[in-house]
Design brief:
Blueprint (H helix, E strand, L loop, with lengths): L2 E9 L2 E9 L3 E6 L2 E6 L3 E7 L2 E6 L2 E6 L4 H9 L4 H4 L7 E5 L4 H9 L3 E3 L6 E7 L9 H5 L2 E12 L7 H10 L3 E7 L4 E7 L8
Parallel strand pairs: 8-9, 8-10, 10-11
Antiparallel strand pairs: 1-2, 1-7, 2-3, 3-4, 5-6, 6-7, 11-13, 12-13
């Protein structure tokens, strides 16, 4: 999830009060009947001064009066986290990949110094599990058995699919005794939802 702040948006001579949201790859505004989305890759300049975040982009320019967070937001836009950062991949992590056909993911894991382990492995830090339909979610209970106590399962699902929804994934995770803790953009076509074992359920 991104950061959010109440703000005043200025575009040209028009001002609107509402809420600004800093997502992982776009700056959003909602309020006063206005909805604005500016992807980072369409921004040509970003600056913060006196609590105002000013952005020039392919569609023009916009100023967001968000207060003390302006400098931090500008830095995050200039230096966005990589996918590996968002997925929490760390050196020496033991990682299992099941049903995810993404060569770039393997390259990112290897560049971070993570170890890709076989399906039968135990004491796994992260499991990346591809689920294209509701029936595939039945495997969450089995996959959980491969995790370390503080390990996590990332469920990778296609966006906008009628075969599997966010609610389907959340309900399946809960039924498996897991809790959802994070959602990130995995790719242009897929979303990733992170699940962990509740602290109270972990073995001592």
């Amino acid at each position: 999830m991104g950061a959010e702040a109440n703000c005043t948006l200025t575009v040209g001579r028009t001002k609107k009060d509402g809420k600004a949201l800093l997502e992982t790859d776009a700056l959003l505004f909602r309020g006063g009947g206005t909805r604005l989305s500016i992807p980072f890759n369409q921004m040509s300049s970003v600056e913060a001064k006196a609590g105002v975040l000013r952005v020039k982009h392919s569609g023009g320019s916009a100023s967001f009066a968000i207060g003390s967070a302006a400098d931090k937001w500008a830095d995050r836009i200039r230096n966005p986290p990589s996918r590996a950062d968002k997925l929490g991949i760390k050196p020496a992590h033991r990682v299992m990949i099941v049903g995810v056909a993404d060569a770039a993911l393997r390259a990112e894991l290897e560049s971070r110094g993570a170890q890709i382990v076989p399906r039968q492995a135990s004491d796994v830090d992260l499991v990346f599990y591809g689920a294209n339909g509701r029936a595939a979610l039945d495997a969450l209970r089995t996959l959980q058995k491969h995790l370390k106590q503080n390990g996590a399962i990332w469920v990778i699902r296609p966006k906008g699919s009628t075969a599997i929804s966010e609610a389907d994934v959340m309900n399946a995770g809960k039924a498996a005794g897991l809790v959802d803790v994070k959602v990130v953009r995995f790719s242009d076509s897929h979303t990733a939802e992170k699940f962990v074992t509740p602290v109270k359920s972990r073995r001592v």
